Amino acid sequence: MPPRTERDLDTSPAPAPAPHDAAWFDEVVRAHGPAVYRYFVRRAPRDDAEDLAADVLAVAWRRRADVPHGAELPWLYRTAGFVLANHRRKGRPTPVGDVPDEIDDADPATLAVADEQVRHVLAALSPRDRRILLLGAWEGLNGDELAEVLGISRGGADAALSRARSRLQEAWAAHAPA
């Protein structure tokens, strides 16, 4: 066993994360505001996306003590899911086929939404499978972030993503043109 050093005996607490103050919030908005906005553009009427994103950021400010340091984006996505569910309960219809008039060829997500077959295959999946796939593919969440958003373990998130991908593959095969 190696000899103990002064560093090994140091019992001082680890430095506390930066406080969730106005500067922290400005950084969260700068770094993650566009991603939250895009989350809503893909799931709600375009006219509502900006207001819904602002609602999520307002919740983040009010509950800033609850936002985990280093996991701000997954926390925002999870909150966005709740905000979107509340928005939908208000009875506003969410048009499934609402796509921009001009397609940006550089944005694969927009191209996928515009593709009729992709829309039919996604519609055939359960809402949970669709949510898991879109968070991974469109929002680019990794396994830990997906687990945080879903409120489950990393292993559970990996399994859910694997099952959702399998069901997507089955639905794609079933909807493939003859």
UniProtKB/TrEMBL annotation:
Q: Which SUPFAM superfamilies match?
A: Sigma2 domain of RNA polymerase sigma factors, Sigma3 and sigma4 domains of RNA polymerase sigma factors
Q: Which domain of life is it from?
A: Bacteria
> Where does the RNA polymerase sigma-70 region domain lie?
29-92
One Pfam family, please name it.
Answer: Sigma70_r2
Keywords recorded for this protein, A-Z: DNA-binding, Sigma factor, Transcription, Transcription regulation
- Give all residue intervals belonging to the RNA polymerase sigma factor 70 region 4 type domain: 116-168
Q: Which family does it belong to?
A: Belongs to the sigma-70 factor family. ECF subfamily.
Please give the name of this protein: Sigma-70 family RNA polymerase sigma factor
Lineage from the top down? Bacteria, Bacillati, Actinomycetota, Actinomycetes, Micrococcales
